[in-house]
Every structure is written in structure tokens, then in C-alpha cells.
Amino acid sequence: MLDVADRVPTREQMIVSNGEGQACSVFASPTMIKLTLFTPAGVLRNGIGLRAAAKRLAGLGFDVTIDASALKKCQRFGGDDATRLAAIHRVAEQAPGVALATRGGYGLTRLLDRIDWRLLARSIKQGTRWVGHSDVTALHLGLLAHAKVPGTVGWAGLLAVDDFGRDNVDDVTEGCFVEAMQGVLDAIGFRTEEGFHGLSVTGTLWGGNLSLVCAMLGTRHWPNIQGGVLFLEDVSEHPYRVERCLLQLHQAGVLGKQKAIVLGAFNNYNKSPLDRGYTLKSAVQQLRSVCKVPILTGLPFGHIPTKVSLPVGARAQLLVNGRDALIAW
Fold first, then answer.
1. For residue 59, what is the domain's CATH number?
2. How far apart are CA 76 and CA 83, in angstroms?
3. What letter does residue 40 receive in the DSSP assignment?
4. How far is residue 294 from each of residues 79, 106, 199, 228, 240, measured CA to CA in Å?
5. pTM of this prediction exceeds 0.90
6. Tell me: the pLDDT tens digits for 269-324?
7. Residue 27 lies in a domain
8. Which residues are catalytic?
9. Rounded to 5, what percent of the chain is helix, strand, coil?
10. Which single residue of 33, 87, 150, 163 could bond 97 by disulfide (Cβ 3.0 to 4.6 Å)?
11. Domain range enclosing 302
12. Same domain, 214 and 274
């Protein structure tokens, strides 16, 4: 194993460091990589963002296909349960290079008991990368629990409409996604808090949206990962709700079984006059007081414009030099 100082990049080399680092570079055009856009969870308001995302991805060189039911509507869902389940299975049968969810929202947990996990596992063996974050966390964790595929089972990363459907996608987000889909991305860097210098741990990289992780705890779709590197993020959740979810994982024995916990963005929540100085930092400090596993912050991932792509299920190494952190796989 390499020394920490040998693997952790300098500040100038960081992939992401509070907006000061350089972007991932796009090594080559991803031409000929087939990419399918599908809607497994929440409904799309209209087709504008979907068409914009498809155009932008095609401009990057992907061979883009929009699934036939991507714009279906049923209440708040992208089609009824049967429609969305059929879309997942249809994409798995086609086994494109990239299966990119159009958006998150809610809906995948409804489908977990009926997903043909062997079919999805076969698509992964054929080279399909199942990509998304937010509600797609349920699919990634289900794959970890059922697919029995060694290594990466999916990519926690972008959502087509939420990211590529916007007017502007920054170089870091776009570059990391393209490199990940090409199979050439092997590490991401970020700036964390002081106090973790010299940390070097190796384990399964897993996690995603905190609310989804907690929702799946205790179900048969829960992956019992031990000795892993758990990454977490959430949106529109007040710090006390974040703390409550983290404590649930701690009290259930999940956090104590990990090598490290890495926290991404927890944003877009409303403060309360009752907080009286209580912040997300307070919540993290409380968790650190009861959990002895290293808890790092600063991962550029979540419901934010600039985000990296992370291989769920990969064997990864987390290293810290000063405040510079690196996750390599």
C-alpha cells in the first residue's frame, strides 16, 4: 500500500477543493458508448429538461436513447409501478453502457420486492453502469444486497434532467462523469476538516442519500457492509433530522462496523428560531462524541451543482494528508 503522502494530491492537483481545484479532464470522446435515459422514480414535469439533457449528452459523444416510458405520468410518479418496473427491466435487457436515471424523487422503494436482480446483475456483467443519486440510492443498495457482482454495482452520480438538463454544467461535474463512464476515473479528491492527517483506510465504498439508507435498514434489501467507507448526503433535511438519521445508523450498529464515514452536502433546509446556535456542525460534533469511527466532511457530492461520481461497491482507499483527502479505487 502506498504511503499517504504519495497518493494524496497537492492542493493544486485536487479534483475539487472548495472551488479552487482544477476540473477532471476529459481524456477522450465517449463516442459509441450507448446511454439510455429512463425514469424509475419521480415524474418529470415536461420533456424540456429531458430533451436538453439528451442533446447535451449527445454533444459529449454518447449514443443517447430515451426510454419509451420516460415521460409517463401517474400522480407524482414517472408512470405507475408496473410501468417503471418494466422500464428498469427493459433497460437491463438492452444492457447499454450507461443507464442514467432522469431524476430521483420517490418511487424506487415501491419496486424493490419486484425487481429482477439477476437480470440487473447480468447487465452489469455486460458493462452497464447504473447511474444516479437521491432515490436511486435504493437501487444501488439493492444491487449490493442481491446482485452478487464483485466490485462496482453502480455509480452514485448525476441525474440526467437535474444536472444535464440545466443551462450550465460545470467542468468538474461533467468531466468526472465522462471519465467515470469511460472507465478511466480512478480517484477523486476534496478538502476536509483538520484532525484526520495520516488517515488511511480501505474498504467497500457504499452509501448515498441518508434518508434512503435509513429507510432500507432492516429490510431484505439492506447490504450488510462491514469495514466499508460509507458516504452520505441529503437535501431539505434540518440538521436535527440529519442527526436523528445518523444516530439511528449508529444505534443500529451500522456506523461502528465501518472504517470511515464521509459526509457530502446537506443543503436547502430552513433554519428555525428554536435552533439557538444548533447547526449541522453541532450535529456532526454530537455524532463524533458517541461514534469512534472517523467522520469526515467536505465530500463534493449530493443535491448540489458541482458533484463527483462515485463507484458504489468498489474496493476503495481513503487517505488524508493535512486537509487534503483522496478516495481512490
1. 3.40.50.10740
2. 13
3. S
4. 42, 31, 9, 12, 20
5. yes
6. 999 999 999 999 999 999 999 999 999 999 999 999 999 999 999 999 999 999 99
7. no
8. 134, 233, 303
9. 35, 20, 45
10. 33
11. 4-14+186-328
12. yes
